[in-house]
Design goal:
- By secondary structure, the chain is mostly helical.
- It has two domains: 66 residues, Arc Repressor Mutant, subunit A; 141 residues, GntR ligand-binding domain-like (Four Helix Bundle (Hemerythrin (Met), subunit A), Up-down Bundle).
- It has ten helices and three strands.
- The chain has a three-stranded antiparallel β-sheet.
- α1 packs across α3.
- It is globular.
Length: 223
């Protein structure tokens, strides 16, 4: 249960939104599943107005959808929407790498440490650790780029749809294999090669989208 107070309703709504996001990330809420204010308010010990605000935020972000006669549901994506999402994300993440390169050159230990964490997680066959480190890896570049618009846009994409709905479905060996792409990005950054770093990141994100497209049609909304 969330430890919240009605004296800070926006903070409460954000906590509820985070709880819903984590439930989707962990596979506890699935695309197409209906959500109700009453049930979530009771589960988290908050007011229905806080849940309603959380629904509104996550609908704007694209994680939830309002469907006539069904109410609020976890949004399902069509294959075309997945392609569109990854096309935009690949370009923005490549931009983030390029902008972040000078800062990460100056603080290369942060990048080396993250890569080591992902390497250790793969060696231990620990998907939870790998996913957590992978999230921090992708967040590092927009943060280091010092561009608030870029960081906000990528955060919205990450929090809405990126791996949240699909990461539990993709074969774990394919996910672990993507770590080789991480290493190519890191090596290019450490070598101060912006072009290769951007190309490697763009290819990595596009490859992630291709893994999702290999899933069966029943995982996607109709076109």
């Amino acid at each position: 249960m969330l430890q919240v107070t009605d004296r800070d309703p926006l903070s409460t709504a954000q906590q509820v939104a985070s709880a819903i996001t984590q439930a989707v990330r962990g596979g506890h809420l699935v695309p197409g599943q209906r959500l109700t204010e009453t049930e979530l308010a009771s589960r988290h010990g908050v007011s229905r107005s806080s849940v309603r605000e959380a629904f509104q935020r996550l609908t704007v972000d694209g994680l939830l959808a309002f469907e006539p006669h069904r109410g609020v549901t976890v949004r399902r994506l069509s294959r075309k929407e997945v392609d569109d999402l990854f096309a935009v994300r690949s370009s923005l993440e490549a931009l983030a790498v390029g902008l972040a390169l000078p800062a990460l050159q100056a603080e290369s230990a942060r990048l080396r440490t993250l890569q080591a964490e992902m390497d250790d997680a793969v060696a231990a066959n620990d998907m939870a650790r790998f996913s957590e480190a992978n999230t921090r890896f992708h967040a590092l570049f927009p943060a280091a780029a010092n561009n608030a618009v870029l960081a906000e846009t990528l955060t919205r994409l990450s929090n809405s749809l990126y791996w949240l709905q699909f990461r539990m479905l993709v074969d774990r060996e394919d996910v672990f294999a993507s770590n080789a792409e991480h290493r190519r990005i890191v090596e290019a950054v450490l070598a101060d090669d912006r072009q290769i770093a951007e190309t490697a990141m763009r290819g990595h994100v596009i490859a992630s989208g291709a893994l999702i497209q290999r899933l069966s049609d029943d995982h996607f909304a109709p076109a």
